[in-house]
Amino acid sequence: MYAELYFADVSCLKDEELYRALYEKMPEDRRAAADRLRFDGDRRLSVGAFSLLRYALAKRGEREVFPIFSGEHGKPYFSDRRDVFFNLSHSGDVALCALSDREIGCDVEKIRRPPLRVADKYFSEEEREYVLSAETDDERRDRFFGVWTLKESVLKASGDGFTVSASSFSALGVCFPPGTGEAFSPRAAFLTRGYASAFCVRGEETVDPAIERIDLKALDC
Prior knowledge:
globular
């Protein structure tokens, strides 16, 4: 059992030569998906996240990325492998890839002024109390994004996303999202200053993640 997190600062992809080198390594459908994005920053995040996935698989001896398909609610899977699971996330200038031998979800969020009204709709009573009981605005902000990334990682690991009632369970520990009938174990993971992040694997057994920061400029293009 393992969980691996790979993250990178994608701002280096403002270099058009580097961007194109990594872009050309992507399958045609992934290039098309990046091309449909409106903003340059979103395209950099898309290319950066996929480059991390390619790197993560290469570390495990896989020579290429397996064909990817989407589940009923949009979660990506490898179409011909049920022993390797992945998830991608990005925010600000940070891209994140999670890899595991179990269902896994991950989320990263740039910390900013928290939209606390979101907590009323998506957080459980326990989560709202945890956020709102903070003694300072900064602590309340950090707690909000900590809970949000935990919650997102659970919903992405389960594959149901926000099709289920996010407020019906607490992601502050092992949880059982409605409709899954299974346990999921979310954990916070520190990547870099100014960002909150978390990952979640299926099952009640927790796992210590291996975390690696990747310099996209150093990848074998």
